[in-house]
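Give me structure tokens for this 610-residue protein.
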Amino acid sequence: MPWTQTDLSFKKLSNKRITTSTGKGLPEEKGASTLELYLPDIKTGIIPGTPPNTTTDILFYTGAIGQTLVVDTSVPNNLTYFATTGYGNTTSANDGSALSESARLGDWVSDKYDAFGTVSGAGYEIKVYDRNSNLITKSDSSNWLFDYQTGILVFNNNLTSYGTGVSTSGPFRIVGHRYVGQKGVIPATYGGLGYTTYTLGDLFVGSGNTVFKLPVGTDNFVLTADSTAGYGLTWKSTAATGITTLNSLTSNFQYFEVGTSGSSFNISSSGSTHTFNIPIAGTGATGLVSTLAQSFAGIKTFTNDVVLSSSTASISTSSGALTVTGGVGIGGSLFVTSAANVSGIILDNSVITSGTWAGSTITAYYGGTGYNSYTKGDILVGSGNTFIKLPVGTDGYVLGADSSRPTGIGWTTVTGVTVSDNAPPSPKSADLWYNSTDGGLLIYYNDGDSSQWTEINLGSGIDLTQQFIITNTSNAYDTSSGALVVNGGAGFASTVFAQSFSVNGGYDFINSSLTTSATTADQVALSVSSSVFRTLKITVQVKSSTNIHSQEILLTHDGTDVFMTEYAAVYSSSILTTFNGDINSGNIRLLVTPVNAVSTYKIACMAIRD
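Here you go.
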């Protein structure tokens, strides 16, 4: 039938572009209307402003070939045609089968995608030709229009009203472009992800204008920044304390010691011990000045006083508190207790006096430490021209950088996280425990009197942006039982799927299905407890090949016998099944006998409780 003005208004409201003959404009829709968007219809590929040759998103039907249309035999007077790959067989193309529908060609690109300034006829606008390849212009009196979304061509006037030279019978042919790119999946370039399926635990990592899937890591692994990884992130294992390796040692408990091995400061790691070696200074070693006899190499310059407190007397050039093998040059005064005690020295004022040694330890400024005693595990940390002594931390603590402390480092805890049925042994303050039995999240802390596990209160509402799965399999028998109990109402913005659904304990919604492989009589299609349910209202759909049979059945029982009535039967060609009912082993059952061996039953049942 020709399209009415209402049809045309609907096409405008649905944002579907059409091309019509010149002067046949569509009046604006009067009154409020809504626009519907269906995700699978949304184009997510690129449609350039200038029509291209065929690309991954656009298919060009050229002027030399185009697309031949098939007449719609359901519309009188051959006024409607549609695009299909099955144009060679008009009967098959119009039979309404799944095959013929799948061959339909829609999603033609309209001139609304033309770049600004595109000349009329040079862009995406569709062109219509008759069977003799004559262009049916937009000024033709046939008043034709073309629906870009469905690929349907409609003539509102009689065929004899075509312009001069135009054939009055099909088939007609169109030339234009079809969108064949991705639909319904929004890529990252438009604010989506580009995916429709996800594995549990998938994470999404951005890179440029693309989002990549990062699969979840092995249990107990942690997500770590890694610039060498393809996504910039990687899953890595970690010990309970948060440190997996220290100077190549992997022991759970590691220790620090101080030694003197080597020729310069070094750290030696072996087994579970790290030894900080500060050698004793010598001719071939840089290190500490000790109470041992030592020899030093290299020129040494002292900018402050040097005091020798030894009282050893000198009786030759090789004895005394200070022995110098070579000569001694003194730029200032030399004072001695008596000139008679001086031999081979050129005196300035004939007097040498002694000073006092200011300290008992060698400071860091002179290559020492400033300390001469240590508690086990002490660490020396440099700061300017001195060392700060950092005592060993509490067992299980780790050394971490901390610019707020005088040493720049400090001992700290690493929060442990445990998932188990029972509380973890030997917990530390701030440890977390997820109780896998009841789903509680607890933290271990000391309130001033004692240490204990305390459950974390998540507040009155939880926003979950990821999928939330309850693995508890408890059945619900009332409003206070089951794997999920909601004391108030529940709002759902999408579909709720359930095996069965009970309303206030009065009646249940139950579904069932069956696919048969033989025509055996009285096959069980539905079975529910006869002690729980008394009356069943059943809607049955049966499919065998392309044939369909649907009807309703009302069934009740007295505990022994079943009483039923069948009504509202509809079918596409013939009856596909018969029905029966019985009580067996405490269950009331719906029995079916299919006409064809392979038949598929889908059953929706409202069951009233006794």
